[in-house]
Write a structure and sequence with these properties.
It is a single chain. The protein is mostly helical. The protein has 13 helices and no strands.
């Protein structure tokens, strides 16, 4: 689900990044744009094929390499995702979106130190316009490591940058719950549900959603969902 949200958020940004040129570059861009269209329709394999065609023509295109890495994440091919994002950084060492996605990949791998370094590299770039994503990823990483105070600080930094960003409020709810700050946890998750476009403030709908989601969730996601349900009952 997180990966899919990342993809949806990036499709509209990426669609304006690659500009059509002449000849081969124009053909590569056509495949890239078609791949983005398939992503919006949730046709992952067809999108994957188009991005591969684009790279055959223009193998160093950073936008194509980046979104291909996200497709690999959707396929749960973490090694290929890592390779794609590292290729982006090799092409453009200031491409913070790739550092952020690399951080998410390392988090999925359980490579926490590498994840922290990648998110911090994204944040370090003063021209990066989506630092809230990297701060949120950093908060998630610190939370999983049990470094609760650092997680809280990171989530708050994300909220400072985009005050209606729902994801760090979910993170804060988990952190406050872990610290026994149950009132703060309840307030944070209420704010998250108010901002979440899935729920639009409907607590009963959120409760139903998480109860259903729990049936298919595993590992860390399952633990988080159980904690959300606990907090919603405060």
């Amino acid at each position: 689900m997180k990966t899919r949200n990342m993809l949806i958020c990036l499709i509209f940004l990426l669609s304006s990044c690659a500009t059509a040129g002449k000849g081969d570059i124009g053909r590569a861009n056509a495949h890239y744009q078609l791949g983005l269209s398939f992503l919006t329709e949730n046709k992952m394999q067809m999108a994957f094929v188009e991005f591969q065609k684009a790279l055959e023509i223009n193998p160093d295109d950073k936008e194509t390499l980046n979104v291909l890495g996200l497709v690999y994440l959707e396929f749960d091919d973490l090694q290929k995702a890592e390779e794609s994002f590292l290729k982006v950084i090799k092409v453009d060492s200031n491409y913070s979106e790739a550092y952020n996605n690399l951080g998410a990949t390392y988090g999925r791998m359980g490579r926490w130190s590498d994840a922290i370094n990648a998110f911090k590299a994204a944040i370090k770039n003063p021209l990066y316009k989506k630092t809230e994503l990297a701060y949120n990823g950093l908060g998630d990483t610190y939370y999983r490591l049990g470094r609760i105070d650092e997680a809280i600080d990171s989530y708050k930094e994300a909220i400072k940058r985009v005050q209606d960003f729902n994801r760090p409020f979910y993170g804060l709810a988990l952190c406050y719950n872990a610290e026994g700050r149950y009132g703060d946890a309840a307030s944070a998750i209420k704010r998250a549900i108010d901002l979440d476009p899935i729920f639009r403030g409907d607590g009963d709908r959120a409760l139903e959603y998480f109860n259903n989601k729990r049936l298919e969730a595993e590992d860390e996601e399952l633990k988080n969902i159980n904690d959300y349900l606990e907090i919603l009952n405060y």
